Known about the structure:
Layout: E1 2-3, E2 15-22, H1 25-38, E3 42-45, E4 51-53, E5 58-65, E6 70-75, E7 79-85, H2 90-99, E8 102-103, H3 117-121, E9 124-125, E10 128-129, E11 134-141, E12 146-151, H4 163-166, E13 171-182, H5 192-198, H6 208-221, E14 240-241, H7 243-247, E15 256-257, E16 263-264, H8 267-273, E17 281-282, E18 285-287, E19 295-297, H9 303-321, E20 330-332
Parallel strand pairs: 2-5, 3-5, 4-20
Antiparallel strand pairs: 1-2, 6-7, 7-13, 8-13, 9-10, 11-12, 11-13, 14-16, 15-16, 17-18, 18-19
Amino acid sequence: MTALSKYTTLRVGGPANRIVHAQTEAELIDAISRADDAGEAVLILGGGSNILVSDTGFSGIVIRVETKGNSYEIDACSGGMLQVSAGDNWDEFVKFTLDKGLANLESLSGIPGTVGGAPIQNIGAYGHEVSEAIARVRAYDRIEKRVTTFAAADCDFSYRSSKFKKEAGRFVILDVTFQLRRGVESLPVMYQELAAELGVKVGDRVDTKKLRDAVLTIRKRKGMLEGEVASAGSFFTNPIVSVDVAAKLPVDAPRWPQPDGSIKTSAAWLMENAGIHKGDKSGGAAISNMHVLALSNAGDATAEDIIKLARMARDKVKEVFGITLEPEVQIVGITL
């Protein structure tokens, strides 16, 4: 049996009973269908960047999505339509689009994982989300046992969520089609931190590659690039709360109004102001010295160490601010 720690960026996770490496769409669908017909438990694994697997591992079949390849059409007026396999590396794809003179994904540079994981989490950074650029998603429906294509409007995208996350386990992403704008001018810079790095004002636009470089610089400084720190990136999502709850927060707490009237605040700010500090430890797990949201493997952590550290952070924020942090990572075989 193979330890799943080999396939996760947290470098923890017990043994897998069996691992299938699906390198083509046909292999992926066949492996899922066989497992479902046999009544086996299935864990779909992409880049392993957004998952915490228990020390006991996974007793069913692990299917690793390793499909590669893309096709694209670029028009001088309408921009580019790119159909990309689920197993392709996300950041390599973002770089590819910028090299082709296409814009709209530059703010999402440096996010670890695969293209197939992007719509599930509706990944986002610095005020932009991948759903802004998705035209459609092809997925295998494990209930109806057929391939289905979803237009973006049917994906039920919301903050760090989608139809594919809300109906977890039902759909396996096969590929994603993106509609991108032709040009080298970025989307508006939405966050002060990024604007300061670029030396511009919030709302300004810059060269897409310049913005990518700034995002990568910030992410590196925070230890949020793959390989920099053994972590799953941001462990918790930024909470979205009511106006009444937001009004009870200290005046210096970040507040980002949402279209529905709710308020998004910063999980990192809440943790730091609840008494969670960079470098705090639980066994072999530690709050990263670079960014408080990155719960990391300091060298010899177990999954239990990491979950204990996450519980401590969640409980302190709940005690001080009355807000319950929700995990961004998928937790398998263990509970928060």
